[in-house]
């Protein structure tokens, strides 16, 4: 055993736990002249990641030194926070002063030691385990000495140094992508420009920079495209073992511009109740486990939707082709058939492999028109008109049942951003939620619940969609917020129930601040995610839930389809062996990819909103106060675009009433939910924000 190994063995035994160099010398009886050799061995153990050295000179293992593993969350002013991975032990973030970052930057995975500081919550970076960024997107600048990439990510609080020899031919001021090549001690990271995206004031270069900054996968590798076309040519294959639904009245209901159709529905009266069929594209028939297509879908995790394009999870030969439940084309499905009584209870259910032929590709607007008595649309869909009314009848029954359970129906306004690729015109119509949306939502939720309950009952490996109840702190903060709106919020913050939130929402239905209450309630909740353990779904007041209905665009749905089909074919033990560990990894991967996709979609939407409002500078609108801060007001238009009113533009001197989310002066008060008359005065593309001026209260 080498000297280095002997020393590490002493640390593992606890003999040298958290000792300084002099203390180690004394315990090992090492003379002063040998101290440098000992220091070299200790440093080698530190480089190997076996030992660590804290700020006060103590050596030890990560556990012995009480090191905290987490991710650095930077700040543009230079300091940062540590977000611990172990939230049970460390529920709060720690502050990292600039001088204690020791070369770590935003996004890095690190080990830290507590240094306490003034507030008792400071840490110091001991070791950088993994760098968070391999590439960065930003604006390129060059002077006589060197080039620099100024990152769009402001929390990465330094420029990237580009040697002049590597960038002499790159135009000043362009949007670009830099690969980080070095992290010199005490200096800014070094890099090289690997892609020029376009001029900094080019709208599409800005959109592309957002896509690049999230490392989203755009084009499919050639071998994946080749495999997709090969699978497309397979067609239906042998359907003798499948249930044939092609003679049944089955339709799809989607947006007018939808190309990847995952789900179709059928409904008929049966035994005094209803027989509902939710037919989902059998993507797993074409995307086999661990195939090139599957590996690519796993890495993507989800399709990402932007106003002008989609980054699909699967190549279009599948997503828009053989897997999509297109009108009047035979397609393979995994179908959930449910027999439902007049109270909305599922009395019997089965999951079967099927083949369907969708009779019509209906749109939400067309279904809404039929329900509203539009004769022309009803004539166009004469064969399905009565079924549409049956859809509505069952939907209302299911909604009443879910309401009794306490389901929290959040009506979150989401902008519908329309982009015309030919004219490049952006349109954002006023927000409108249709009952036809609720039909599909009710049927898909029921199918998701029914499938999850069955798989849970047989204890199969599975991926659940979980939504845990709000933390006590967040529930109490929301409770206080609701009270500022004049609402009664009588519930136990330490054990809030879905019904408590539902009751609060219903009491505010006719208030101008209703959408703000919805959004604030959503923020008080935990983030929904995927997990192999069934933890229930708070928002839906469901004890067991999954995502089964969108395998074209969500990886968890595709994964559980495979597991279900394995079990349908009698391979329960095979499913246990093949998918138990895989499902756990897929759940984590999919949760992370979903978060990235959501953030990217939000940032691109904000860019489009800013561009849209730049064409409406000088126009006036009614708006509702959606946010109050110490530096001004946020106000939301009916089309969901939010703008900012700086406090210095308000007449008078205002103070911020944090407890009541209000700005107050001796003569005036501005509070959440109040209606304003505003004028659009400008846009800030860097912040992707619109600026308003207050004209009057309404």
Secondary structure class reads: alpha+beta
Helix content: 25-40%
- Please give the largest β-sheet: 5 strands, antiparallel
Radius of gyration: 29 Å
User: What is the CA-CA span between the terminal residues?
Assistant: 82 Å
Shape category: globular
Number of strands: 33
Number of helices: 16
Low-confidence stretches: none
Approximately what portion of the residues adopt beta-strand conformation?
Answer: 25-35%
Q: Overall pLDDT, averaged?
A: 92
Largest sheet strand order: 5-4-3-6-7
Please tell me about this protein's structure.
By secondary structure, the chain is of the alpha+beta class. It is built from 16 helices and 33 strands. The chain has a 5-stranded antiparallel sheet with strand order 5-4-3-6-7, with no helix packed on it. A hairpin with a 5-residue loop joins β19 (330-340) and β20. It is globular, with a radius of gyration of 29 Å. The relative contact order is 0.07. The model has no long low-confidence stretch (mean pLDDT 92).
Label this structure with key terms.
698 residues; alpha+beta; 5-stranded antiparallel β-sheet; 16 helices; 33 strands
């Amino acid at each position: 055993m080498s000297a280095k190994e002997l020393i590490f063995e002493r640390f593992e035994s606890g003999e040298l736990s958290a000792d300084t160099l002099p203390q180690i010398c004394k315990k090992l009886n090492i003379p002063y002249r040998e101290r440098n050799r000992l220091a070299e061995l200790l440093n080698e153990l530190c480089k190997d990641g076996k030992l660590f050295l804290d700020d006060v000179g103590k050596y030890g293992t990560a556990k012995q030194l009480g090191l905290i593993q987490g991710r650095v969350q930077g700040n543009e002013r230079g300091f940062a926070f540590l977000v611990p991975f172990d939230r049970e032990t460390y529920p709060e973030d720690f502050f990292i002063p600039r001088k204690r970052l020791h070369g770590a930057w935003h996004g890095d995975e690190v080990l830290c030691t507590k240094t306490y500081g003034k507030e008792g919550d400071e840490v110091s970076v001991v070791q950088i385990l993994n760098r968070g960024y391999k590439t960065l997107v930003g604006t390129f600048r060059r002077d006589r000495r060197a080039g620099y990439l100024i990152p769009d990510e402001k929390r990465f609080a330094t420029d990237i140094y580009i040697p002049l020899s590597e960038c002499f031919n790159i135009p000043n001021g362009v949007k670009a992508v830099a690969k980080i090549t070095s992290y010199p001690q005490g200096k800014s990271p070094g890099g090289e420009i690997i892609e020029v995206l376009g001029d900094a004031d080019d709208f599409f270069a800005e959109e592309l920079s957002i896509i690049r900054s999230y490392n989203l996968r755009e084009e499919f590798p050639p071998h994946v495209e080749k495999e997709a076309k090969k699978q497309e040519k397979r067609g239906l294959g042998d359907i003798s073992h499948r249930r044939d639904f092609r003679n049944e009245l089955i339709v799809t209901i989607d947006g007018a511009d939808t190309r990847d159709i995952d789900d179709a529905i059928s409904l008929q009266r049966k035994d005094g109740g209803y027989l509902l069929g939710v037919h989902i594209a059998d993507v797993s028939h074409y995307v086999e486990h661990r195939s090139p297509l599957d590996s690519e879908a796993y890495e993507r995790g989800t399709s990402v939707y932007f106003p002008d394009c989609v980054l699909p999870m699967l190549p279009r030969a599948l997503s828009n082709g053989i897997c999509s439940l297109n009108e009047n084309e035979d397609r393979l499905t995994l179908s959930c058939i449910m027999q439902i009584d007049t109270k909305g209870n599922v009395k019997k259910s089965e999951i079967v492999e099927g083949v369907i032929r969708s009779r019509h590709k209906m749109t939400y607007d067309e279904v809404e028109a039929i329900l509203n008595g539009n004769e022309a649309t009803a004539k166009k869909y004469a064969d399905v008109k009565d079924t549409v009314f049956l859809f509505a009848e069952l939907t209302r029954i299911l909604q009443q049942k879910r309401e009794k359970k306490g389901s929290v129906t959040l009506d979150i306004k989401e902008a519908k951003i329309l982009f015309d690729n030919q004219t490049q015109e952006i349109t954002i119509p006023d927000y409108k939620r249709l009952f036809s949306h609720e039909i599909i939502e009710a049927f898909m939720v029921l199918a998701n619940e029914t499938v999850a309950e069955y798989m849970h009952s047989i204890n199969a490996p599975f991926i659940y969609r979980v939504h845990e109840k709000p933390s006590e702190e967040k529930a109490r903060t929301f409770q206080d917020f609701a009270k500022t709106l004049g609402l009664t919020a009588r519930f136990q913050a330490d054990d809030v129930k879905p019904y408590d939130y539902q009751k609060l929402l219903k009491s505010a239905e006719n208030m101008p601040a209703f959408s703000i209450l919805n959004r604030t309630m959503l923020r008080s909740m935990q983030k929904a995610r995927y997990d192999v353990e069934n933890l229930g779904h708070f928002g839906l007041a469901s004890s067991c839930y999954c995502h089964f209905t969108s395998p074209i665009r969500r990886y968890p749905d595709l994964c559980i389809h495979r597991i279900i089909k394995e079990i349908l074919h009698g391979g329960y033990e095979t499913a246990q062996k093949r998918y138990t560990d895989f499902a756990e990894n897929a759940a984590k991967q999919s949760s992370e990819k979903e978060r990235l996709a959501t953030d990217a979609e939000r940032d691109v939407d904000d860019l489009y909103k800013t561009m849209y409002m730049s064409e409406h500078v000088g126009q006036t609108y009614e708006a509702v106060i959606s946010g109050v801060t110490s530096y001004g007001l946020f106000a939301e238009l009916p089309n969901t675009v939010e703008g900012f009113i700086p406090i210095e533009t308000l007449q008078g001197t205002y103070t911020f009433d944090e407890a009541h989310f209000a700005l107050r002066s001796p003569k005036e008060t501005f509070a959440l939910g109040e209606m304003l008359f505003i004028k659009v005065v400008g846009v800030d593309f860097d912040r992707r924000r619109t600026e308003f001026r207050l004209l009057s209260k309404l």
